[in-house]
Amino acid sequence: MNIRESLIAILVLGICVFWALADGAAAQQGIGSALRLMTPLLLACLAGLYSERAGVFDIGLEGKMLMAAFTAASVAYITGSAWLGLAAGIGGSLALSLIHGLASITFMGNQLISGVAINFLASGLTVLIGQNAFGLGGRTPALTGDGRFGPITLPGAEAVADVPLLGPIYSGLISGQTILVYVAFAMVPITWWVLYRTRFGLRLRAVGENPASVDTAGISVTRLRYTAVAIAGILCGIAGAYLATGLSAGFVKEMTAGRGFIALAALIFAKWRPWQALFATFLFGLLEAIANLYPNLDLGIVVVPSMFMNALPYILTVIILAGFVGRAIPPRAGGEPYVKER
Amino acid sequence: MDKMPKWADVILTPLISLILAMGISALVILAIGESPWMALTTMVEGALGSSYGWGFTLYYATNFVFTGLAVMVAYHASLFNIGGEGQAAMGGLGVALVLLYLPLPHWAIALPVAMVGAAAFGAAWAFLPAFLQAKRGSHIVITTIMFNFIAAALLNYVLVNQLRPVGSMDPASARFPEATNLPALTDIAAAMGFDWGRNSPVNVTFLVALAACFLIWVLIWRTRLGYQIRAFGRSEPGAVYAGINPVTITVIAMLISGGLAGMMAINNVMGEAERLVLNAVEGAGFIGIAVALMGRNHPLGILLAALLFGFLYQGGGELALWTSIPRELIIVIQALVILFTGALDNMVRMPLERLFLTMRRTSRGAVK
Predict the structure, then answer these.
(1) B95 with B264: CB under 8 angstroms?
(2) Neighbour-count burial for B33-44, b at 16+ CB within 10 Å, e otherwise
(3) Residue A82, class by beta-carbon neighbours within 10 Å (0-12 exposed, 13-18 middle, 19+ buried)?
């Protein structure tokens, strides 16, 4: 971590501590909400990380999440099983990933245009099929019981609930989340390990920086990139399934509401690295939670409108992209199809 | 030597892409248990079957001409501007401020002033992404996406907290003064003694859009600036070697692009709604991407593609009205057009090129 990242980390932790001291109950509620709101962001952000580290830009995160949310909610409603919903979510997202792979790897098309197309495809198809299947204007019926992922109480949560400091943090925040939240957090060290400690990760990073060298070493660029795009599809699928069957109880038209783009922003904020992604998505989740809890945040001197809080992730990303506070340099071969020399 | 004759590149490839997109859309309609033929006839009837339908088709097409041209100008400088949505929204703010706060006695005076306001706000919204791309290398696609969201938040704030008339619950500005309302084409037709397109929103902005197509053609292919933009788009090092300043060209191309996107507001905000409402752009900024790709980044192509999308948009509305197919079908078609003409371009092009090569070889063999 460099100075900039440490400073932002201290600032965010400071906000949390200050909030907890000022109003403990609200802080617990807000930070808990931030953890839940950051989960889809984190999963989508890691999805983008795999794809973009392999040199395939992905602005279709939003669409893949949306499609996954829809297929997950539909299947969970029909079968009554959140787990089958999760599988369907991953399937829906993977289908769009395949299109993205075909366009950007096999047919060497423009990856950005492909991403734009995927976002619209998901936005249209979900409502089209949803209206046809359920007739609720693009919504799916509300999920109940096993159709949703319920909270899990971790061992010992009740025992330590009354311990000061540890109690509220462990039993109030860490325990009682749905399984997908834990999956998302576990993905951070796993991604770090895969990326920096395995042969696959080395090759993945190499294919995003200099695909020709990977090709020269006798490794298929196409196969590596397809694998990366598929991993991105799986992670977006989990993110979408969490949105529809964990965070809410069913699919609503356009329910991703720009989260795919906030994840993209977080990815740039994190400079394409997993631990920083955890941190960036927590910051953006926290902003969303604060904006939800305090529509008009009164800071004493000025009243911050909720619109500003909602736009803050985007504004921060532009500032980071502008390179005024540490530069964000994307993988060098990102966005360019690999043309094998003949 | 080119692998394909020019006509094949300009007409055949977009046409095949369109047919593929339509074919898959037909399959989607079949899959949801409706008849594609019935859908098509409903759309044609609703959009082109009456002067009323044409009025709407042309109204939507006007929006898409502006946003399509916006994408095109940036594209010639090899910049992918997907911020048309935000720039058009800001253009709306520009129009609203000009019309609400300047005393403009007649629409003929209000129109040029509003155009300046719309273009200035749209261009201003494109300036920062352009400048950051040119000076700091921040990717313009990402910054313009971010600026779309920032524009939405800003407009939401301005409409709810500033422009909303006292006592109104609706997040929208006050009505613009009566004198500044643009004449609809139906009024002009009525003045000339025709009964055409009654109650349809197409207005004089359509003529402005036609003029814009011509002017942009002149700009890109007949002026020094246009040459510089194209040269820069083809090869940045080449352009720099020829003494073209990359920062200036990037910024100018994006200012023109943003200005064009902003100009859309004189159609939808000034011409139709006659007040600024929330989400006035309704995705037209994004449709501009499909229109520019489909129109092969040429104003004539863009005009035709805009008419096509105008038809799809109006036809989609009719479809939602008369059948159980929701209007989101249009978003699917739009996505497929973008996919096939933009991202899967090579999938259509490669077999075509092979076909033309074999045809050439066999015809040459026959001569020998």
Answers:
(1) no
(2) ebebeebbebbe
(3) buried
With beta carbons less than 8 A apart as the criterion, state whether B255 and B133 touch: no
Chain A touched by B345 (CB under 8 Å): yes
A268 in contact with B, Cβ within 8 Å: yes
Q: Could you give the C-alpha distances from A13 to A164, A269, A283, A304, in angstroms and in order? A: 19, 17, 10, 20
| Model pTM score | 0.90
Instruction: Please answer whether residues A110 and B82 qualify as being in contact, where contact means their C-beta atoms are separated by less than 8 angstroms.
Output: no
What lies within 8 Å, CB to CB, of B235 at 6+ separation is none
Which residues in chain B have their CB less than 8 angstroms from residue A107's CB?
343-347, 350
Q: How far apart are CA B18 and CA A206, in angstroms?
A: 38
**Residue indicated by tokens 């709810």:** B160
A314 contacts in B (CB within 8 Å)? 146-147, 149-150, 153
Q: Which residue, among A46, A35, A72, A31, has the nearest Cα to A293 in the 3D structure?
A: A31
Q: Map residue A304 onto helix, strand or coil.
A: strand
Q: Which two tokens stand for residue A167?
A: 């109690």
Interval B295-322: pLDDT, tens: 889 999 999 999 999 999 999 888 888 8
Quickly count: other Cβ atoms within 10 Å of residue A84's Cβ.
Answer: 16
- A208 or A299, higher pLDDT: A208
As a residue count, chain A comes to 342
Per-residue pLDDT reduced to its tens digit, A134-145: 888 788 888 888
Nearest chain B Cα distance for residue A28, angstroms = 28
pLDDT in tens, B202-244: 999 999 999 999 999 999 999 999 999 999 999 999 999 999 9
Q: From the centroid of its chain, how far is CA A303?
A: 30
B346: closest CA of chain A, how far (Å)? 6
Helix (H, G, I), strand (E, B) or coil at A94: helix
The pLDDT of residue A296 is above 70: yes
Mean pLDDT of B239-265: 95
DSSP H helices, chain B, are: 6-7, 13-31, 36-48, 51-76, 84-101, 107-136, 140-157, 185-191, 205-222, 224-234, 236-241, 246-263, 265, 284-294, 299-322, 329-338, 345-367
Closest by Cβ to A321, choosing from B132, B289, B328: B132
| CA atoms of B217 and B230, how far apart (whole Å) | 12
Is the Cβ–Cβ distance between A160 and A166 less than 8 Å?
yes
User: CA-CA distance, A306 to A327, in Å (whole number)?
Assistant: 28
The A residues from 310 to 339 touching B (CB cutoff 8 Å) are 310-311, 314-315, 317-318, 321-323, 330
Domain boundaries, chain A: 3-322
Alpha helices, DSSP H, located in chain A: 3-22, 24-53, 61-79, 82-101, 111-134, 166-167, 179-197, 199-209, 211-216, 221-242, 259-269, 274-293, 306-322
**Residue B341 DSSP symbol:** I
Q: Domain A3-322: which CATH class?
A: mainly alpha
Task: Provide the angle, in degrees to the nearest 10, between the axes of the packed helices A259-269 and B140-157.
Answer: 130
Please name which of B259, B270, B336 lies closest in space to residue B66, comparing C-alpha atoms: B259
State the Cα angle at B366 between B361 and B367, rounded to 5°.
100
- A177-178 and A296-298 beta bridge pairing: unpaired
The Cα-based distances of A235 to A93, A144, A226, B72 in angstroms read: 9, 24, 14, 34
> What tokens appear for A215 in the block?
């090709």
Residue whose token pair is 């916006």: B70
Q: Positive or negative, the Cα torsion across B291, B294, B297, B300? A: negative
Instruction: Report how far apart, in Å, the C-alpha atoms of B360 and of each of B174, B350, B352, B367 are.
Output: 64, 15, 12, 11
